[in-house]
Write a structure and sequence with these properties.
Layout lengths: L7 H22 L6 H13 L4 E5 L2 H11 L7 E5 L5 H8 L3 E5 L10 H7 L4 E4 L11 H8 L5 E5 L7 E2 L2 E2 L6 E5 L13 E5 L2 H10 L21 H11 L2 H19 L5 E2 L7 E2 L5 E5 L2 H10 L29 H9 E4 L7 H17 L2
Parallel strand pairs: 2-3, 2-4, 4-5, 5-8
Antiparallel strand pairs: 1-9, 6-7, 6-11, 8-9, 10-12, 12-13
Helix pairs in contact: 1-8, 2-8, 3-4, 3-7, 9-12
The chain binds pyridoxal-5'-phosphate.
Length: about 375
């Protein structure tokens, strides 16, 4: 039985009639941007994230970029972020002219290590971008305690963790803002690229809303620099349909994760994810540490089982950041994770039997190698 890494066709088949009707309604109205679908989505997602407001964007990357612009981050500023994340976390910092300061991760959760943040703070530090990697929240209490007294902003990169909680409090409701991505692989996915900024801070929300519209407060009155970062109504309409299913989808991901946890427990050569006390993960990715990863990947492929590596290289070692002067060996936990992590199929559209098939294959690989 094939186990694809993602099965978006199956998701679409189940929602096709409703999504097409929603798109048709948008097209009939010819309100294509800044319309009622965006407004509804912003309100629903803000509520879902236990926050006051949402500002819809064209991507998760734009949500981060617009937030940094609204926070006034600029050349000479430093922003602390993990090196073990998707490029956009730090790429957006560099795009506003500031310097990303890469720190290591906690090897247990793969999330940014608060002790490493503390050690990296300088007089130039302007803020921190914790990433809630793979669907599990970073250690936010400690991060907020580090940031608060020093006046540093905390921008939560929640691209992989919509709906995740820590001690009952949702991702995006801790820092000044959180950035969501609705890229097709995310737990809530658009018809292509889309994202959202979520915030509890009214002044920030008002600013970032103008940043998403070229800094225009209305009537071509551009009070600051911004961009065209807004979301199309067609995406918002599709997302409004899909949002109704998000709670069930996240539950289904957790159910799949529990199957892997059970079936891979004690298998020598593979380490299942650890969810920290107080955290509830939404498992955007189910990531194990795998010995002989390349061989395992090839074996899974031979069985038509998908897998993926997020991420093979730390951002501190990316060519475009070479001028920052990091050297190999400087962030050992990041570098070790890059060699070992492997994501197994976990999306909600898969059946229990498919997840069991993938878990059995992993077990078979390691048992045959004993
Ligand atoms: C951790 C992280 N940050 C930021 C992004 C950027 O989101 P997008 O692809 O929607 O621009 C992504 C997703 O791709 C991500 O996984």
């Amino acid at each position: 039985m094939a186990v694809p890494f993602l099965d978006l066709k199956k998701q679409f088949a189940g929602l096709k009639a409703e999504i097409l009707a929603a798109i048709e309604a948008v097209l009939d109205s010819q309100v294509l941007v800044l319309g009622p679908q965006q407004k509804q989505l912003e309100q629903s997602l803000a509520e879902y994230c236990q926050a006051k407001a949402g500002v819809a964007c064209a991507s998760g990357t734009d949500a981060l970029l617009a937030s940094l612009m609204a926070l006034g981050v600029k050349a000479g500023d430093e922003v602390i972020c993990p090196a073990f994340t998707f490029f956009a976390t730090a790429g957006t910092v560099a795009r506003v002219g500031a310097t990303p300061v890469f720190v290591d991760i906690d090897p247990v959760t793969f999330n940014i290590d608060p002790a490493a943040i503390a050690a990296a703070i300088t007089p130039r530090t302007k803020g921190i971008i914790p990433v809630h990697l793979y669907g599990q929240m970073a250690e936010m209490e400690t991060i907020m305690r580090l940031a608060g007294p020093r006046g540093l902003f905390v921008l939560e990169d929640t691209a992989q963790a919509v709906g995740a909680t820590r001690n009952g409090k949702k991702a995006c409701s801790w820092g000044v803002a959180g950035a969501l991505s609705f890229y097709p692989t995310k737990n809530l996915n658009a018809l292509g690229d889309a994202g959202m900024i979520i915030s509890n801070d009214e002044a920030f929300t008002a600013t970032v809303r103008t940043v998403c519209l070229h800094g225009d407060t209305g009537g071509y009155n551009h009070v600051r620099l911004g961009g065209n970062f807004r979301m199309d109504e067609i995406h918002a309409a599709a997302l409004n349909v899909k949002l109704k299913h998000l709670t069930n989808w996240n539950e289904s991901r957790r159910h799949h994760a529990a199957i892997y946890d059970r079936m891979l427990k004690g298998v020598e050569g593979v380490l299942t994810p650890t969810i920290a006390a107080g955290n509830e993960s939404v498992y955007n990715l189910y990531v194990v540490r795998a010995q002989r990863r390349a061989e395992l990947t090839a074996f899974l492929k031979s069985r038509q089982i998908g897998s993926a590596v997020h991420y093979p290289k730390g951002l501190h070692e990316q060519p475009c950041f070479a001028h920052l002067g990091y050297r190999h060996g400087q962030l050992p936990q990041t570098e070790k994770a890059c060699q070992e992590v492997l994501a197994l199929p976990v999306c909600p559209e898969l059946t229990d039997a498919q997840i069991e098939e993938a878990a059995s294959a992993v077990r078979e690989f390691y048992e045959a190698k004993k």
